[in-house]
Amino acid sequence: MLKINHIWFDFSDTIAFLKKERHDRLRYETYSLVTGKPANFELATEYEELYRKYNHSNAAVFRSIGQPADFWSEQVNDVDPKELYELSDPEVPKILKTISQSIPISIFSNIELEKILLSLTIDTKWFTNILSAKMVKEPKPALDGFYKMVELSAIPAQQILYIGDDVGKDVQPAKKVGIQAAIIWKESDEADHSFKNFQDILNVLQ
């Protein structure tokens, strides 16, 4: 395996888990508002079909119906972060800080994160870059942001490790641009690394 000189993280369901009921309500109510359709079971079913089509990316769903790349991010940031997110592991802040003391770490998400990270006691200073949807033309799983990651890292793509929770939205696009890809909380033959928990990420530093 090639040496890793920069680690990039996905956010949702990687660093923090979504509080599903509240998050789903936001997704469906926002979709109802944009489309003018009633917020009912049929609308939820329609939305979930789009969500699957666009590789589990809410930002890409709203982009597909004509909204700006950062539209979903704006909806999320209008809600108290503690209503929507909780740390995926209580040790996440400690582990991120430890990794950042060894090699650069950055984060790439389809949402704006500064306020959310602070609410989770994660110091934004630990990250070399915080890349969001408004900084790229198209949100994940489009390749725009992954190419931007390589540009911002200023090292060859193969020396970058990107860690996410989804094969279609995270692993596959990362590998398409030559970045090493890892999946967390599960295993995948498509990933270069599979981490059962956040602590396992420290093993790549050894």
Structure description:
The chain has 2 domains: 132 residues, 3-Layer(aba) Sandwich (Rossmann fold); 66 residues. It contains 9 helices and 8 strands. The strands form 2 sheets. Strands 5-4-1-6-7-8 form a 6-stranded parallel sheet, sandwiched between helices. A two-stranded antiparallel sheet has the order 2-3. The longest helix has 16 residues.
How are the strands of the largest sheet arranged?
5-4-1-6-7-8
- Fourth-level CATH superfamily of the largest domain: HAD superfamily/HAD-like
β-sheet strand percentage: 15-25%
The DSSP helix count reads: 9
Number of strands: 8
In short:
This protein is 40% helix and 16% strand. By secondary structure, the chain is of the alpha/beta class. The longest helix has 16 residues, at 20-35.
Which key phrases capture this entry?
single chain, 206 residues, alpha/beta, Rossmann fold, 8 strands
Secondary structure layout:
Elements: E1 6-9, E2 16-18, H1 20-35, H2 41-53, H3 58-64, H4 71-77, H5 81-84, E3 85-87, H6 92-100, E4 105-108, H7 114-119, E5 127-131, H8 144-153, E6 160-164, H9 167-176, E7 180-184, E8 193-195
Parallel strand pairs: 1-4, 1-6, 4-5, 6-7, 7-8
Antiparallel strand pairs: 2-3
